[in-house]
Fold this protein.
Amino acid sequence: MASRAGKETSAPAGQRVVHPLEPIFDGKSRVLVLGTMPSPKSREVRFYYGNPQNRFWRVMAALWGEPVPASNDDRRDLCLRHHVALWDVLASCTIAGASDASIRDPVPNDVGRILSAAPIVRVFCTGGTATRLYQRLIEPACGVPCTGLPSTSPANARMRLDDLVVAYESLRRAADGE
């Protein structure tokens, strides 16, 4: 597109990314937590919320008064022990790095796969983009509304860890059957 100065500008560069991770869930999962799309660091370490600056695993550990899980196996175990299913809203999209704001051409994951296999009572989305994409692309098909939670990304620096833990308390209550 042309700018006012007549110079050519374009949308943010991005690459087509196909979601590489399997969902985490079992037949006892009560809540489904959905991010948007694994970041480059998460794809590199082959697990959700893999950027060490992301506070997701610190929040999850704090909710249940546990140590922060150190390995992917520990993270998977924490989720399953506490009846948390984990996946992402998107199966594929064009994205620049980890910038949710750059997402183009989103294709949703089939969350029906989890909803039909586990007794999910609540769906939570981490961050505004995940929430909006879920509401637009998935909720009309599955009929299950989601609760939006604040992003645990380092880009959401305005929220302190303690504030995130308070915001995620509804996830813990639903997972624990309260």
Q: What stands out?
A: The longest strand covers residues 99-108.
